[in-house]
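INTERNAL AUDIT FORM
Audit reference: QA-55
Scope: verify that the stored structure record matches its stored sequence.
Auditor: D.O.
Record contents follow.
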Amino acid sequence: MFHTKQIKILAMFLFLILVMVVLTSCLPGTLAQQDLKPAGFLMGVWHGWIAPFSLIISIFRPDVRLYDSYNTGWWYDFGFYIAIISGFGGLSLFRKTSANRNPR
């Protein structure tokens, strides 16, 4: 009926759809924030991790922000910047060590 390759492609497609739904369900600025608590440290970390996706989506949806303005202050900022630095800085460190392993 289905071949192994078709099942793998279907599973990958479903996984990507699930990831997109999860990532877009908690973007900064998309919730009605009158009744909610302000975003804290962990939400700052989450928003830092999904910042590239938030940036792309904010081009098409003006209600999506890169940074949640309704936050707890310093702790949210700290989590956001830790996630940004660890995500992007970690990639550059990985590339640097990979380049050192394979000298030309």
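Auditor finding: record pair retrieved intact. The first helix runs from residue 4 to 25.
Action required: none
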